[in-house]
Structure formats: C-alpha cells, structure tokens
Design brief:
Blueprint (H helix, E strand, L loop, with lengths): L1 H7 L2 E5 L5 E6 L23 H15 L8 E6 L5 E10 L6 E7 L1 H37 L3 E6 L5 E4 L1 H7 L3 H4 L13 H13 L6 E4 L6 E11 L2 E9 L2 H4 L5 H11 L3 E6 L4 E4 L1 H7 L20 H14 L1 E10 L5 E11 L6 E8 L1 H10 L5 H8 L7 H23 L4 H8 L3 H10 L7
Antiparallel strand pairs: 1-2, 1-5, 3-4, 4-5, 6-7, 6-10, 8-9, 9-10, 11-12, 11-15, 13-14, 14-15
Length: about 450
C-alpha cells in the first residue's frame, strides 16, 4: 500500500483526528525531500509556515465534520526554518477513527517555471526599452539634421519616412509625404526608372547624384542615395540636395510660437540647465495655484515635483544626453498641497551663451481616471510604441507585424523554458501539438535546438 501511495503522489501524510502525523510516505523516485521520519508522531502544524497553519486547521475541521475540502489545498512546509517548499494536498478518507490521507504534489517545479517566465518577461521589457531608446535617437536625428532626408522602399517605391526639411524642399506637408509614391514627386522620371537610377548610383563609386525636377516647386534637385537592408527589404536613404536660398521659407514661426506660449492650454516652462525657472505661461500658474509670475520665476522647479530633485535630475540628465525627453509621467504639488498627475516632455534649446530647457506639461488626472475604470493601464507604454508606427505603415501591416513578433517571442520563450520539449511547450501555450508545429515551421524554429 505504501508503494502505491508513494507512486501516486510526491509526498503522502496520514493524519489522525488530533492533527498528528501518523505516517509519512515519500515517492521513491524523488529524493529532494530528504528523510522526514522525524515528522511521525508530531502535530502537522509544527511543520507548516505561519500562513498555512490556519488554512490546514480550517480544512481539517471541515473534514472531521463530514464536509471534506472539494478543492486541493496548497500548504507551505517548513522544517526548523532551514528550508521551505509548497505542496498541493488532496484529502481522502482513510481507515477509521477519522484519520485522513493527504496526497501531496510538489509545487517547486511549477514555482521554478514561473520564476523563469518572470525572468523572460523582464528580458522582453528590456528589449522593448532598448527599442524605444533607439527609436527616440532616430526621431531626434531626423528632427534636428539640417539636410533633407527621405527613406524610400526599393520594392514598392513609396516613401517610408521623411523629415520636415525634405517636405519643405518638395513643397509638401510631412504627413502627406509619408506613404506617397516617390516618383510622383518629380516631373521627369517614371517609377521604375527612378528606382533603377538610384540603385545604380549606390553601386558605382564614380556615379554622381541623380538629377530630378520637383513637380510642385519646379526646382532642380539632386538625390544622393544609400541602400541598406532592414526588415527583409531594401531601403534607400536619399539626401535631397538643392538651392539653399530657394528652399528657405519665410520665418513666421516666432510670432506664432509666442502666441502659442501665451494661449495654449498646456503648461509651458523654461528653465536653465540647473533647474531654475526662467519663465512660465498662465496655464502653469493655474496648474500650481500661484497668483503671480514673481512667485514662480527664480524658484527651482524641483520644489513643484512630488519626487523633488529626483524628477529634476532625470530631466536634466536626459536632455543633456539626448537633447529631448518625452512622455515622462510624474506629479506636481501645488500651493495647496494637492498632487496633480502630469505628463511632460522636455527639449534642450541649444545656445552657446545660455542654453535653455523648454518643458511642456499636461494634466492627465482625467485620463488616469479613464485608465482606472477600463483597466488599460498595463497597455500604456506599448500603446505609445505602436502609435508611433501610425503614418509610416498601414493598419493591416502594423497589426500583422506586432502580432507576429509577439507570437514568435512567446513560442521561443516556451521552447527555451521547456528545454525544447515540444509537448510541454504546447501545453504551456495552450496550443495543440499540431498547431505548435505549424507555428514553429512558420517562424523557422522547427529545427532550432
């Protein structure tokens, strides 16, 4: 009988009506429990952690009253505080005098697997953070480079991305330029001819720039292309060269920027590189509850942050390294002591004599209320990351790409955690074995060791 019980469970306890251990049976195939003979003749509670004592006594009393637990009971064992391990027990009638047979299943392998999943999730989050960092660097370069730059797909001939300088040079708006057929922007070239000419220019060291004429501005331009491969396709990065004087637009932004600073509903703050407030708009005064501009100017901005100098140091360090920082969430403390959640972006305005950092702060207290009611807080960061793709790809391409990437990473993680045990990986992912093999073949993982 002991052999049968030992084979059917990892550990089995025979407990009397007084909650005393009468017998201990260990699975002969598992030696991780050690010798537990000293448990016999002693109360069960002597070998349970504090949080498990009450659970066991409640379940045992219900068993003695004739209503045994219908669900397995998870208990944490301890032995003189030297080691602890979780076991899932089921209650079974055994013999007479209200004795109970507890058949236990060791939960340590499951706990170890969960820990591995947590570590895998942390690794994925680090990968997402690295991707966001590279994307931020790319956006900063595109926004601040003085040359007109356009990225064109060699397969489709469409503009994948372009900076504002290129849009101005071609006489278009940035949002309409992205996704447009590149050849239609020039009046003297067909689609296939233009792509072929740019590809030939990248292959020959002696070939000069490709000469074109803009359809909108009628200006003669030169395309200096470089080809590279990304995402399984060839991309042409083209520098557009033209007459600098002809491409300059009238500078009317100074007055517009001043009007925006005064009238915008978002709070705008200018600080120096030490964090001292230089100027603010009326929206910031309303946000912090100050009556006069003199109450704020000359004060360090850390006085208004809930985390004080910690938030200020984050802003100063990131703007010093990257020049910009966006979507940073924190809280402001107003003059009445209330905390207001805000989301801010910061930009370093380069000036050889006195560099200034401009901050835009937005009150997100109402948005946080919406996130709390619909439970979408966990999707906040990934959502920003996906929304950055809008405009450069179609909705169908964005959904397909992100779905395939997540699915592939999950399958790779499951196969790694199970040491390439396909049956266990399929069970972990909730897939049939046949479905898992189809997806392994789809992502080229079938022969992966």
């Amino acid at each position: 009988m002991s052999s049968i019980i030992g084979a059917a469970s990892d550990i089995a306890l025979v407990v009397s009506a007084e909650a005393t251990i009468l017998s201990v049976v260990i699975n002969t195939q598992d030696d991780s429990f050690g010798n537990l003979r000293h448990w016999e003749g002693r109360p069960v509670v002597d070998f349970l952690t504090e949080d498990s004592v009450g659970k066991f006594l409640t379940a045992h009393d219900a068993y003695l009253s004739g209503v045994g637990p219908k669900k397995p009971l998870e208990l944490n064992h301890s032995d003189n505080a030297v080691w602890q391990y979780p076991v899932r027990y089921t209650f079974h009638r055994f013999g007479h005098e209200d004795a109970v047979l507890l058949l236990g299943r060791d939960l340590r392998p499951i706990a170890e697997t969960q820990q591995q999943l947590v570590q895998a999730q942390i690794a994925l989050e680090q990968g997402y953070e690295a991707r966001r960092e590279f994307d931020a660097r790319y956006r900063v370069v595109m926004a601040n480079v003085q040359e007109a730059v356009v990225f064109v797909s060699a397969q489709t001939g469409r503009v994948e991305d372009a900076n504002d300088r290129a849009a101005a040079l071609l006489g278009m708006k940035p949002d309409t330029l992205n996704g447009a057929t590149f050849a239609t922007l020039f009046s003297d070239r067909s689609g296939a001819e233009l792509i072929e000419s740019m590809m030939n220019a990248t292959l020959s060291e002696d070939a000069g720039p490709v000469k074109v004429v803009s359809t909108r501005t009628r200006q003669s331009l030169s395309l200096d292309p470089i080809v590279f491969r990304a995402g399984g396709q060839r991309i042409l990065m083209c520098r557009i060269l033209g007459d600098a004087d002809a491409s300059e637009l009238p500078d009317t932004t100074s007055g517009q920027a001043a009007a925006l600073f005064r009238q915008t509903s978002d709070s705008v703050v200018f600080i120096d590189t030490r964090g001292t407030v230089l100027s603010v708009n009326e929206a910031f005064l309303d946000l912090v509850g100050s009556a006069h501009m003199s109450d704020v100017v000359g004060v360090t901005l850390s006085d208004y942050f809930a985390r004080g100098k910690i938030d200020l140091d984050v802003i100063l360090q990131n703007t010093d390294k990257a020049g910009q920082m966006r979507a940073y969430a924190t809280k402001l403390v107003n003059d009445l002591g209330s905390r207001v959640p805000v989301e801010l972006s910061a930009t370093l305005l380069q000036d050889p004599d006195s560099p200034v950092i401009a901050l835009i702060l937005r009150d997100v207290s109402r948005m946080e209320g919406v996130r709390r009611t619909d439970g979408a807080t966990a999707l906040q960061d990934p959502g920003h990351n996906v929304m950055d793709l809008v405009g450069s790809s179609t909705l169908k391409d964005i959904v397909a790409e992100t779905t395939d990437v997540v699915e592939k990473m999950c399958i790779e993680t499951a196969v790694t955690l199970t040491n390439n045990n396909r049956v266990a990986a399929a069970e972990m992912l909730g897939l049939s074995r046949q479905s898992l093999y189809v997806k392994l073949r789809k992502y080229g993982l079938l022969a992966k060791d």
